[in-house]
Amino acid sequence: MNFKKLFTYTPKDEYHFTLLDNGANNVSDKKETVTEPKTVFPSLSVNLEFVKSKYNSMINSDIIVREFNLLARGKQYSAFLLYIDGMIDTEIMNKFILEPLMLRNKSNLYEFDQNRVISEAVTNNITVRKVKKFNLADYIMNCLMPQNTVKKSSEFSKIFNDVNSGNCALFIDTLNIAFDIEVKGFEKRSIEKPENEMVIMGAHESFVENLRTNTSLLRRIVHNENLVIENISIGKITKTNCSLCYVKNLANSDLVAEVSYRLNNLEVDSMLSSGQLEQMIIDNNLMSVPQVISTERPDKASSYLLDGRIVLLVNGSPYSLIVPAVLTDFLSTPDDKNMKTSFSNFIKWIRILATFIVLLLPGLYVAIASFHQDVLPSDLLYSILASRETVPFPVILEILILEIAFELIREAGIRVPSPIGPTIGIVGALIIGQSAVSAGIVSPILIIIVAMTGIASFAIPDYSFSFHLRTYRFLFIFLGYCCGFLGIGLGFLVYITVLCDTSSFGVPFTSGISPLQKTVGHSYFLQPVWLREFRASYLDTKKEEKQEKISMKWKYPFLKKEDL
Amino acid sequence: MADSKITSKEAIMLIVTIFVSHTIVTLPENLLSNTKSATLINLIYLGIIVSLLAYVIYRLLKNFASLDIIDISEYLGGKVLKNIIGGIFIAYFIVTSSNLLREFCEGLRVAFFPMTDILSILIPFVIMLFVTNYLSFSSNVKAVSLIFPLVIASIIFLFFGNFKNFSFERMFPILGKGFTDTFITGLGNIFAFSGISCLYFIPPYLKDPSKMKQISLTSVVIGLLYFLFCTATVLLLFSFFVDVDEVLPLFSAASYIEFGVFFQRLESFFMLVWILEIGAYLMITNRFSISIFQKMTSIKYQRPLSMIFPLLVLGIALLPKNYSVIRFLETNIYAYFIIAIVFVLGISILVLANLKKKKERKV
User: Fold this and answer.
1) Interface test with B, best of A326, A378, A494 (most B CBs within 10 A)
2) A174: which residues sit within 8 A by CB, 6+ positions away?
3) Which of A34, A249, A446, B144 can bridge B280 by disulfide, Cβ–Cβ 3.0-4.6 Å?
4) CA–CA separation, B5 vs A166, rounded Å?
5) How far is CA A203 from the centre of its chain?
6) Are A504 and A379 in the same domain?
7) pLDDT in tens, A330-363
8) How many domains, in total, are found in chain B?
9) Which of B272, B273, B276 to mutate to test the interface with A (most CBs of A within 10 A)?
10) Which pLDDT tens digit goes with each residue over A40-52?
11) Does residue A489 belong to the interface with chain B, where contact is any CB pair within 8 Å?
12) Is A372 in contact with B124 (Cβ distance < 8 A)?
């Protein structure tokens, strides 16, 4: 029933648009009776007609079909080029494709025998000649196309896929193949500073949207021929190029096979970002805890590659995914390994504290305020009670109002244009907070609690993990309100049991913490750089040793290997 | 089972967790009421005996590779004996955990929720068990190993936090009521080491069963040290404690800790750690019960049982009418029940099974 009709008058002759929901437009359910051709025809006109209809060239403004006459060995052949305007480099197209093919030059004017004699032998006055027949396709490929990446292809699906990626396809009359020529030249963002993962002492490069640029960034850092970058296309419609990167002599083969298996078995129409891919490949989506590391930093991705992990890149996404991930990874930054160990470990302690503050502090406050006032010294208790005297709400409502307000401010700060962002923060934090306290809606102590929680959430390096903690904090607020420390204690026990039950690509999520195992050089807290001798045992890498037992050989020049 | 394998360190933490959880309720008080000021000596004496028993259990289990006592009973007396022993151990785990839960919840009610119905305090534990039973056994053990350091730290902190309040003369007379009461009738205090029962069930879960000896002895030693810290805290802090009707003696001990003006009442934080500890204990005993039941009935999956056993624990925990009934049952019935099952029945089954095996080998 349309309630609007009850209260308003709508004239019948007014134009209305409704998207019919009767499935009339849904063609995918119908059985397609017309089978599309799969391979290239020898007749150019048939190819031309098919390509034009496939690409809707009558209505598609950027699809270009350039027909021309090709000159080879003095003969002319009809041909056409198919490409997408804006995706190709026109200079390469003109200079290295059209010019050699169309203009007269030494190569295409060569008019001697069409068949070449390779060898000749005379026996019993009979001459036997081995002749290589003239092949137009080979001739064009080898002599007329001064282009570094040219492939012969007979399947339309492959050709269209590459044209959609920015290549051009050359169809020639009488040939049942087409030339797939790389002429990519679209506009792309240049490599910039990372925006969301700032470091003090690390590199200042970040991934961009272009897949090849990203793979080159990894190549430059890893700088080893064992780095394998496999291409996998995902999405029935978008056929998005994704790269599976690993160091062949380090990464566990079963792990590589598993990741490849998951990537190759995604039945989706489109794959537009690494975030979508992450959700499609993780073991368990029920718990919001991230099971894949997402980073925009090539140095971080390369460091994990060298630890024996796998990096996934998605074309069009400036983030890479790293698998498998364990809990401690979400509390680490690339800076940790660049700083002195003592500094890093101090910061790591702070991050642990921040994690507990984000997750438990509001819940503990509610529990203490509701059930366990005895833990507070009398003076503090009196001041809290005095500050709450004018507040008309119960503590749960008070904290929920403020926490939700804080989340609103944070969300607004992210969405608004960047020049206004800081203003929103100042207005939200200072003016609204102060006014709320003055109006007696919330107590000042609660402002401190919520602010501390908010600040602590920014100290967590991984955005997804921070978000996870922020959402679970509401659960602990509820538990604290219902059962005090009992609720929080049992809730925390369940929470850590669930974390222990989680796994990322076969690796227990709490590896390195529990189960306790060999974590030399790879526990959460870092050892001095010369003691980081092993890769994490939970990764079961092909090469466990990371560096020699005596890594600083200069210090012990006379020490022999057998003395160790 | 593949994901249920645990390391030897995790096994030690699991066993110690089972050992020490009863100390949070009235175990120190029960020990003290039996052997008075000789409790510390008595505990050391019992610790040596239990270490020997743990070694004996290890030797007896060694001949059965990674079989638990239920499989061994089947080997000894077929399915009938397997079901009888399984039933007895399920009853043991359910009854002891129900009793501990009820006792602890009574303590919680006195401390924090005086106006709350006991059922409302019990239900969060049951909900916790519903969830954790759905997860893998190894995840439960991993969670226990994360909590374990907290529990150990809490008791050490409790001991040293109260150090300035201790009256060391309360240790005397060192032999309490006399030699006989300490070393002969004091043997009854062995029920405190009932956590040793885990040794019967742990072999199938071990990644490396050859470390069983290390696991048995280390867990007994750590458990003993924990008992000593707990009992010493209560003994040295309260005069004639046994005459004081305290629900949770360690909780009372925690209220004496003071650090400056700000940290004056820390007992609630201790309670938070002990809630985790009791939760961990319930989690593990529930898993053992479910696992035994699964073996008895040969059902394929444990998940359908994950709600039944917590409800059983809840039902039995609600049976005693009040706290004095629980105390009566604990001091007069459960202690003997535990000794009979853990130290007599368990070891007898293992001895008989070993004799049978020896006989078979000879034949």
Assistant:
1) A494
2) A42, A44, A77, A136
3) B144
4) 52
5) 19
6) yes
7) 999 988 888 899 999 999 999 999 999 999 999 9
8) 1
9) B272
10) 999 999 999 999 9
11) yes
12) no
